[in-house]
Amino acid sequence: MRRAARPIDQRTAARIALAAQGFCDPPPAGRVDTRHFRRVMGRLALLQLDSVQAVCRSHYLPVYSRLGVYDRDALDDWLWNSGEMFETWAHEASILPVGLEPSLRWRKRRAAEGETWSGLHAMATGHADYVDAVMAEVEERGPVRAADLSDPRPRSGDWWNGRSDGKRAVDWLFRIGRVGSRRIGNFERTYEPLNRIVPDQVLATATPTEDAAQRDLLEVAGLSNGIGTAGDLADHFRIGVKEARPRLAELLDEGRLLSVEVEGWGEPAFLHPESVTPRTVSARALLSPFDPVVWCRPRAERLFGFRYRIEIYVPAEKREYGYYVLPFLLGQDLVGRVDLKADRAEGVLRARGVFAEDGIDRDHVAVELSRELDRMAAFLGLDGVEVGRRGNLASALRSVHR
Could you tell me the pTM of the whole model? Predict the structure, then answer.
């Protein structure tokens, strides 16, 4: 039997969400190690991967925002070599705990049936012998880069166009779960059979029904988000909202989620039973554009009154704030944003544009942002910070950051 929806005000909802994301956890008392990485992943459930590195690779930043300065090589070693994590398609390309692999098999089955990029499916269906040959080579030689695959196709006929399609073949095999991936060097993928990355005991786990798997993923999303609408929770693992709604209703019936009403949201919301409601949040962090706090843009606007769009693909002359803009979390509020670039050649972290939200005490924000930029520079191994003149916070920040 469902309980009646209880009301929650927007400020309380924001604190619940930030606590669920780890911003109320105690900071590491000493050197950051694997225990802390596990704690962060327990909060986030996944790290989204992205190739843009104007500051650094995107998966480093959510961990930094919650733990502070740590060894990025140590994180990579744990992510790719511990046997505890694996890369797959979840919230775009992501890395997740291996224990979630059975709950994602339905997505791989759908990819095999054609719910993926048309070019990959066309190769698999039209040139199955070639894909099988690539799979055999990965089994024999893996881990192997796509660029190092031999090309088993005959050098004649309509299909041969003078270049290898090994990359598309391994991408297909990755999408359908026959191969796994690790990242090496400059974030380059290597491929090997999935059972060399995901432990046998996980792969031997019975495959849940599609409905059960989606319920489990939505419950994980509920725990990670703390509170959210159907769209918020569905977005975490990129489940269609229409498909998620009946699964969420079942979670309510089972008591695995609770029904709440958040002031001003205009639609039903869900609260995880294990969510906590802190009295205050004392965070100070720059957030990746791919951080779960802001990656669902409508959710960030509802929770924080913060309208955020990534402008990487917007022509330079049409950008409002800049190329790679990081929101600034202070306390429980998103108070500003910084167009940031790590200039590795000069050893400088460049805050090319700095902007405060309306109604914010700019002098106070400038002091806190100055400290955060110094911490970010230390994390990136840069010698200092240079503040540009663009943005309504630039003058205040330049006055305190000398």
Answer: 0.94
